[in-house]
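[SOLVED] Need 3D model of a two-part complex

Original post:
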Amino acid sequence: MSIIVQKYGGSSLADTEKIMRVANRIVSTKKEGNQVVAIVSAMGKTTDNLIKLAKEINENPSKREMDQLLATGEQISMSLLAMAIDNLGEKALSLSGPQAGIKTDSTHSKAMITEIVSDRLLDELKNDNIIIVAGFQGVTENHDIATLGRGGSDTSAVSIAAALNADLCEIFTDVDGVYACDPRIVPNIKKLSAVSYDEMLELANLGAKVLHSRSVEVGKSHNVTIHVRSSFNHNIGTVVKKEVSSMEHNGVITGIAHDFNIAKVVVFGVPDKPGVAARIFKELALANIGIQMIVQSAQTENQNDIAFTCSLDDAREAKAILEKISNDVGARDVVITENLAKVSIVGAGMMTHSNIASRMFGTLGKAGINIDMISTSEITISVIVNSDQCEKAVRELAEEFDLID
Amino acid sequence: MSIIVQKYGGSSLADTEKIMRVANRIVSTKKEGNQVVAIVSAMGKTTDNLIKLAKEINENPSKREMDQLLATGEQISMSLLAMAIDNLGEKALSLSGPQAGIKTDSTHSKAMITEIVSDRLLDELKNDNIIIVAGFQGVTENHDIATLGRGGSDTSAVSIAAALNADLCEIFTDVDGVYACDPRIVPNIKKLSAVSYDEMLELANLGAKVLHSRSVEVGKSHNVTIHVRSSFNHNIGTVVKKEVSSMEHNGVITGIAHDFNIAKVVVFGVPDKPGVAARIFKELALANIGIQMIVQSAQTENQNDIAFTCSLDDAREAKAILEKISNDVGARDVVITENLAKVSIVGAGMMTHSNIASRMFGTLGKAGINIDMISTSEITISVIVNSDQCEKAVRELAEEFDLID
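Solution:
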């Protein structure tokens, strides 16, 4: 008998009718001869509503208390789903994160799973139960509830699949799978039938929002096959796994990601001497500001400009920090540029094809799109462009790399 | 430093504004130099709304899953209240029933508290925290959540007060305390300044709804002083304790309870032979039907009628059970009478005054109120009357026994 782990997001569980539809799907999976563990998010807007209530009371509530509060959202949907399955005549049992043995560190609001003690999960499967587990939550050593942050329920699902050595982890969402780029930009873009962990990680990190990168990392390190598919139909979605055969590949380039949540910060006129760049990036790291690309260019013989990108949310804080130390490091000015976008092409095939970069830059040049910054890794090339040229860039690249159906 | 346990009901926590008012009250208690543990119910209509959701999905949901679901109501109010206190500059920490060490048996939906493991409560008090505990819930040996049933949060509060050896347990509610009878019937009825555990138990069992009898039982067995008072003002309410001095007493009769949730079941023409009554009440007990008064009267030389009262909700089931066995026991007919009410006078002073019963029956007789059944205990006398005469009976008795201000 196979163990199948399924994850259903909040939009798939938005009301009681949708919960009953999900229950039917789970029961079918069970009746096909599988043991099923389903991980659920909170119903529809529940989490938003709880956050709103909290903010009415305290504009800056403690993260521990927010976790105690938000965990109820998943607890509500898990018990309702168990009742719906019971109503269909199958045995079902809901377990909160703590009850399911999901142990976390104590970083409230973005905790990491440290261990899954799977005894109870295995016992209840043995008792022929369908198990419904509250996603997004676990329990600290101190018996406090901790939530896992963005994409937390995906991470719960893949981690439980790993702990149970499940045959498959199905992530049900409101789209049909992972597309080679955002289908809102290129409506007839190809859906990926399969993608490797590494490619999915790059796509997720670079802005594709279907699957959170943390869940892909867990999948990669425990070799969990992940199937991303729609909860609203029975179409085959996208399988994320270790190796993707050339048969399954679209071509050299797997996908194109884009991200508007990006800003460029330039520190002008930094003296060209050792330790200056280190000082700058140490201060930013201390403030937990994530740096993406870095470009240093010589302005005069003994002065450099240092440019880097970070998320839009962090840009103002970065500027403030750098202005505070600009006397120390001898910088002349700090300037933020917003209205930018990052466009990235991703593909494992890049490693064996040397002309990809030139094809990318050539395509963008021919379309009159100016490239502000460039960075590359083994399987990605990213460029920064003006935000109003982002969609055009994605479209041109999709055509160039044959990603349109 | 005194430990004060406070309990706030759902109507005191119905919206964020009311939660902030409760937070202020808790902080004042703390600032007066006390350690405070507050037990909370779910906000306003939360529990009703959760039940409605569940019923949409499954008309007869499992009790375990209902407990998993309903427990979220108290978890929401506990974390919001902790945030509100934090906003006032005091340290606060919310604990669910399981986190607070409230252990129960596994009778889902009406579990009994078996033990309170108070280590964490004591630790957090030592850390100068105000602790907010989710009422109405605990955890079974199997790590499942179990709710305590009606009046559960009161029971949580008094049990925690007992476990912490608290100096006082304040039950905040939407009325000013315990009145000698329902103030909706006699508006100028006396409020009781003090009442003994035994009297309060009788009043609670007989229909006074301010405090649930289970919480009074826990208070009695651990000698916890309980102060029932309003969360909407600072008036002194009613103190429930072991012994009430004559100074504190209203008179011989402490209060009058009434209860419309009552039905009479009469089994006609039962043969007058041993074992028949035993058989009848054994069958009813097996179905968990609580029997209140029993009257057996000889109809003919070798036939009896057996009449008893039970709650309205149970009457039809009782009739069905008795009809099923009526051939076995040789009964002629089973008849339910609804539209009844029970009116009871309660007072420890009754033990030393012999004319109370005759004063009661005389008063009712003079008012033209017919008495259907009578039962007495050490400190109560109860009569069954027609429901449309109930309020008149309460008014006449309140006057006779000098319970009007």
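Edit: The radius of gyration of chain B is 23 Å.
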